[in-house]
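Input record, target 12 of the design panel.
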């Protein structure tokens, strides 16, 4: 039995603990910035694209994404760059090893943090195969800021995430399976496509 003198503080703690549950589970409060991935041009850096053949439900099931696209951009040298952009209120679904879903069965064990050329504020995670050609790179945007460490970001923003309306995170992901392993990322078509896609999106 709990002493009555502890009843008030325990009740207050329980009510405080219920706040996130009510906000996210019952009310489902979200705050959207009005942006959409459809604003990203089908022609980026002078390169035409074609959409992938994934069904609309794929992005929802894989990333809990309510707004996403996937396209293939092919340059004059024959590099076929795949671009995925997806938005979700479930941040972990986007930042937790997106390459497992978007570059399935490829060994991308070498990981570095870089910046897009000409865009020092854009932090990019670059993934390469240790011995073979090919690369993938992704950037995460939340509240107009680029996130280089999403776990630290969520720790810093944990109070807001608990009691405030959820805001979407956006994942930009590019992959070029034929890019030479020893070539610098900042000279790749993938880097140019990624920079153009980010610019188009943030210009809304």
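The sequence produced for target 12 reads:
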């Amino acid at each position: 039995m709990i002493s009555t003198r502890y009843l008030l503080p325990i009740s207050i703690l329980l009510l405080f603990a219920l706040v996130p549950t009510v906000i996210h589970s019952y009310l489902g409060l979200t705050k959207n910035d009005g942006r959409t991935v459809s604003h990203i041009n089908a022609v980026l850096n002078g390169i035409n694209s074609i959409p992938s053949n994934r069904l609309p439900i794929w992005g929802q099931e894989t990333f809990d994404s309510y707004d996403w696209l996937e396209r293939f951009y092919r340059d004059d040298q024959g590099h076929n760059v795949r671009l995925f952009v997806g938005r979700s209120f479930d941040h972990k679904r986007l930042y937790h090893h997106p390459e497992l879903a978007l570059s399935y069965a490829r060994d991308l064990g070498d990981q570095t943090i870089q910046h897009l050329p000409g865009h020092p504020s854009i932090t990019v995670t670059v993934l390469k195969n240790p011995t073979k050609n090919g690369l993938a790179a992704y950037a995460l945007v939340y509240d107009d800021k680029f996130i280089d460490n999403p776990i630290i970001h969520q720790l810093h923003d944990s109070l807001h995430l608990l009691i405030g309306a959820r805001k979407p995170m956006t994942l930009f992901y590019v992959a070029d399976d034929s890019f030479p392993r020893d070539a610098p990322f900042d000279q790749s078509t993938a880097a140019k496509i990624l920079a153009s896609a980010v610019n188009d999106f943030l210009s809304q």
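The mean pLDDT is 85.
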